[in-house]
Each structure stands twice: as C-alpha cells, then as structure tokens.
Design a protein that fits this description.
The structure is a single chain. By secondary structure, the chain is mainly beta. It folds into two domains: 88 residues, Uncharacterised protein PF12988, DUF3872 (Immunoglobulin-like); 86 residues, RlpA-like domain (Barwin-like endoglucanases). 14% of the residues lie in helices and 39% in strands. The protein is built from two helices and 15 strands. Strand 12 and strand 13 form a beta hairpin. The N terminus is likely disordered.
Length: 237
C-alpha cells in the first residue's frame, strides 16, 4: 500500500471511532450520570420553609421567694404559646452570667411550677428563662430576689449615741439605716425580715456587746421592720 493510501485509511478509521463515541454519549440517559451529594446529617432542627417562630410570653402568677432555710421556694406561671414539655428554668445571678438552680416542664396549657429547697441562707437576684424551640422564640422574666433566712436574736440602739462615730465610718443619726455586727465585714449587705416587712441594709457598726444577741439595729432599721426592743429577726447572713 502506498503511503498516501495508508494515511487515508487511518483518517477514515479515526472518523468512525469518533462517530461511534459521540453516538454512545448522546444515547446515555441523564439519570445514569454520577451525582455527588453531601450526606453529612444536619443535627440542628430547621423550621419548615415559610414558617416563623412565634413570640413567647413568659408570665409569673405567684412567687414564694422569701423562705426560712429548709422550706421550699416556688414560682408558678404560664408560657405562651401553650404546649406541653417546654423547659422553664429558674436561674440566679452568678458573676456576669446566670446559673440554673431548678427547672420544670410546662403542661399542655403552658402552666408551670418551679420548686426549690435552698441548702443555705443568702439573697440573690433570680429570673425565669425559656431557651426557645422550633415553634417559639426565647423569653425571660426577672423576678424579685430569692431570700433564704434564718432566725437571729437582735436588739436596737440609737438614743444617747447620736453624733458618735460608727465602727465602719461616719456618724450615727436617727436616719441611719444599717446594723451593727461583731464580725461581718463593714459594708456587708444583710436582708432582714420581721412581721412581714423586709429591708436590705449594710453593716455600719460594731456590736452588740450583750450576750446572745447577733445584731443591733439602728433606729431607722427598727422602724422599717416594725421591730420592738429585743427579739428575733430573720436574716440572710
């Protein structure tokens, strides 16, 4: 075979191969082509398209947050929109954040009761917190303080001492709010309760120096509590 004839034969063969390959690809259905999908599971619930979470309404109906040590504190209320099983948390202030101290779940009508039996005395800011879910947005409600008291024997002082310097600085006068205590640091906040009255004052002086008495109330503190001459008060310290 002459070289020119050989080249024409090779060219014709290449054309036949290209025609066969293009015919095969054109006949391949689209479904037979390989697809690559991300099969990593999505662990975060996503609301259905076109839906939005409802605003939550967290309301407090009743609180019992001033209790003697060993007794139960309770907070009841409702969470809207209503739904069973939503978690409502009772939290206390902790530094710059909040710490959960008790929680509960709502019933079908959105009602809840949080119960807590404190283990120590003290006074702290508290709030309710609902973290939200697929149907409802988060909500919170700040409450009065949680005050956990114990009993302490107290007296009061003032007349005959007005104008005298106090152990923590300043001078005593009839309008001075505070208490005298022998060991609590000056400026320590103390919440006192007596006859249903509650005051929050600071340690401003030293004393009392009569056996068996833990606190000496200033005259202004005595009046605010409705306290007599000597007797028991409830204290958070």
């Amino acid at each position: 075979m002459r070289p020119q004839t050989h080249l024409r034969a090779r060219s014709a063969m290449a054309g036949l191969v290209a025609l066969a390959l293009s015919t095969t690809l054109a006949a391949t259905p689209a479904a037979a082509q390989v697809e690559y999908r991300d099969t990593t599971p999505n662990l975060t619930p996503t609301p259905q398209a076109g839906t939005a979470r409802a605003a939550s309404d967290l309301r407090v109906n009743l609180t019992r947050t001033n209790v003697l040590l060993g007794n139960r504190a309770t907070v009841s209320g409702t969470l809207r929109p209503a739904g069973a099983g939503r978690i409502v948390r009772l939290q206390r202030r902790s530094g710059n954040g909040w710490l959960t101290i008790a929680d509960t779940r709502t019933d079908a009508a959105g009602r809840f009761v949080v119960r807590l039996t404190p283990r120590s005395t003290g006074s702290t800011t508290i709030r309710l917190r609902f973290s939200g879910d697929e149907q409802a947005r988060p909500a919170r409600e700040t409450l009065d303080r949680l005050n956990v008291f114990r009993k302490a024997f107290a007296s009061w002082y003032g007349p005959g001492l007005y104008g005298n310097p106090m152990g923590c600085g300043g001078r005593l006068n009839p309008g001075t709010l505070g208490v005298a205590h022998k060991t609590l640091p000056c400026g320590t906040s103390v919440t006192l309760r007596h006859n249903g009255n509650i005051v929050r004052v600071r340690v401003v002086d030293r004393g009392p120096y009569v056996g068996g008495r833990e606190f000496d109330l200033t005259e202004a503190t005595k009046r605010a509590l409705g306290f007599g001459s000597t007797g028991y008060v409830q204290t958070t310290r």
